[in-house]
Amino acid sequence: MKQLLAAFSLMFLVISATVLASQMDVRFAKFDINADGEISLTEATKHDNLLKQFADLDENGDQVLSEQEFEKFKL
Question: Nucleus among the record's keywords (predicted)?
């Protein structure tokens, strides 16, 4: 019984992580207009809230946001 419960718990965690990752991909794609895998400052100017946070999110100062940098974006 414990093994079954553990298996269901693990399955739930995997499914939850997959759904959350999928939502992040969709959200990132919304801002990555040219689909080059990063959000440029030009792309960010089309979204006021992202533009306001851009400098703080751009940890390495390269004027583009990677998916990892974008994960910290708050709507």
Answer: no
Residue 62 backbone phi and psi in degrees, to 5: -90, 10
DSSP string, 4-69: HHHHHHHHHHHHHHHHHHHHHHHHHHHH-TT-SSSEEHHHHTTSHHHHHHHHHH-TT-SSEE-HHH
Would you give the DSSP letter of residue 70? H
Nearest-CA neighbor of 32 among 22, 19, 41?
41
DSSP at 3: H
- What gap in Å lies between CA 75 and CA 65, rounded to an integer? 15
Q: Are 57 and 65 in contact (CB under 8 A)?
A: yes
Task: Encode pLDDT of 19-63 as tens digits.
Answer: 344 455 679 999 999 999 999 999 999 999 999 999 999 999 999
